[in-house]
Amino acid sequence: MAAAPNDLQEDGAVKSPAMPARSALLPPLNLPFLSPHFCQPASSHEHKLNFKKSKEVCLSYIQDAVLQKQWERAAEFLISYIESLEKDYSQEYMGPSEMIWRIGTEILCHHSRSSMKELNSFMEQMKILGVKRYLKVCLEHVFQLLCNGFIDEAYQNLSLAESWRFGEQTVIQDKEMKLIQAYRGLLDYYKWSKQKNILLEHGEDGFEDLSVEQEMHSCFRKAAVNLKEIIKAPGVWDQFVKCYVDLLEFYGDCNEARQVLHDYAYDSKFPSNPNAHVYLYQFLKRQGESKKALISALKNLHDTVPSHELMIDFNLMLQKSKKRKKRQLGLEVIFAALDYAGWKENVKAWSCLAKQLKQIVMSEKHLDWLKQEWSPRKDWWPAFHFSRYLGKRNWQENQSLSYEKALVAGILLGKDDKYFKYICHQGCKARMKRFRILKKFVHKHSPVYMRISGL
Questions:
Q1: Any residues with CB less than 8 A from the CB of 46 and at least 6 apart, and which?
Q2: Based on the number of CB atoms within 10 Å of its own CB, is 363 exposed (0-12), middle (13-18) or buried (19 or more)?
Q3: Pairwise CA distance, residues 299 & 381, whole Å
Q4: Fewer CB near the last or first residue (10 Å), C or N of the chain?
Q5: What span, in angstroms and rounded, lies between the C-alpha atoms of 455 and 447?
Q6: Residue 408 host element (H or E)
Q7: In this structure, how many other beta carbons lie within 10 angstroms of the beta carbon of residue 143?
């Protein structure tokens, strides 16, 4: 909550209306953790005693302020918390805990008068005072720099962190160092991409400055080494994998790119990850691979995320197949996708289903496929997709959608279905020929409804 102009003091501090004015006997509170203009007036003596007795109370106040996005109030309570730690009667030195680092970063990122300069200063303090967390703080600092567009500064911080050493390296530090190197590889890829775009823009013949090409190849080598290293370890490395594959594809090493993507999708050391199958499918498609290979990649994606947007592509490929099992799988895929709320108004999905249902009804073959898919849905799809309310809304917002859905509703629920009747009535009233044809088609094939419903 931003401070009103009358609440600002001469030194830039915010005077809290909830707290009494600072006593003249108390010196201003200056801590290395926050910029001076965050030094709020100290709490009352009673509040300070409460904070000393129970730091948990203060932390709960901080949490409440952060959750309500009251960043000035949160900064005040954080300073009170740090002050209580400094005056702890145990006389033991207490470095800044991870909690202070995390909360302080959050406050500085959202405070109305914070700047990148103050955030940088805070992060440097955290690095110095929290040696064991140095690499973790560096990663957070780099993330904040990148979010604010300071690419070069982020790269410098990663380079400094990569050369950092403190005592005997632990397993955790080793993992964090690999992340530091990986993110440096990511920024090397970013530089490579910029140089590549310059070359492509000017063309190889019209660009005489070899320094750009040399810089590009230098960035490629550095990026490839670090990206290749990180994706060997178990984990979810989507962005790193995509960048590494892009490098390999550009330089024509498609076999290595295919192997990387295959391992990322199927090697058991990596956690189950739908994106891995997406990246493999997209690569295979770019390479002009066979339909069999594309279907295999999308089948694994379907098994993991049946609501993925690529299920339309999957359905279209399966419908074109000459094999009965694949066409049946196509019907299963599109039904499964439409089970999800995010697909309720997807015209293309309804069009795919309507087309396949129409083919089945006209040929009167494979009605068993239709019955198999409809049986577990007949109790909840009518309310989910085919209510009269949805009919009115679909007609007003998208008549193409309402047409496809009405065809499906007419086949699955019969000519007396309320959605089908409402849409056909509106279409015929508007003298739209395709709705009259739709009505005749459903009436002609109404026995299909009886057969798949088991009536």
A1: none
A2: exposed
A3: 25
A4: C
A5: 10
A6: helix 399-413
A7: 13
Q: Which residues contact 25 (CB under 8 A, 6 or more apart)?
A: none
The closest alpha carbon to 38, from 123, 130, 112, 124, belongs to: 112
**b/e 321-348 (16+ beta carbons within 10 angstroms → b):** beeeebbbbbbbbbbbbbbeeebbebee
Residue type for 268, please? S
Return the HEC string of 250-261: HCCCHHHHHHHH
Letter for the amino acid at 373? Answer: E
Which has the closest alpha carbon to 67: 14, 103, 112, 41?
103
What the block records as the tokens of 237 is 């490395």
Alpha-carbon distance of 14 to 78, in angstroms, equals 14
Tokens for 360, please give them: 């089945």
Lowest-pLDDT range, 172-186, 254-268, 406-420? 172-186
Q: Which two tokens stand for residue 387?
A: 């209510």
**pTM over cut 0.85:** no
Taken in order 83, 89, 94, 97, the sign of the CA dihedral is negative
Question: Burial level of 79, CB count in 10 A (0-12/13-18/19+)?
Answer: buried
H or E element: which one contains 277? helix 274-286
| Cα–Cα distance list, 273 to 116, 229, 305, 306 (Å) | 35, 19, 10, 13
pLDDT in tens, 338-385: 999 999 999 999 999 999 999 999 988 889 999 999 999 999 999 999
The Cα 33–Cα 101 span in angstroms is 9
17 and 27 Cβ atoms separated by less than 8 Å: no
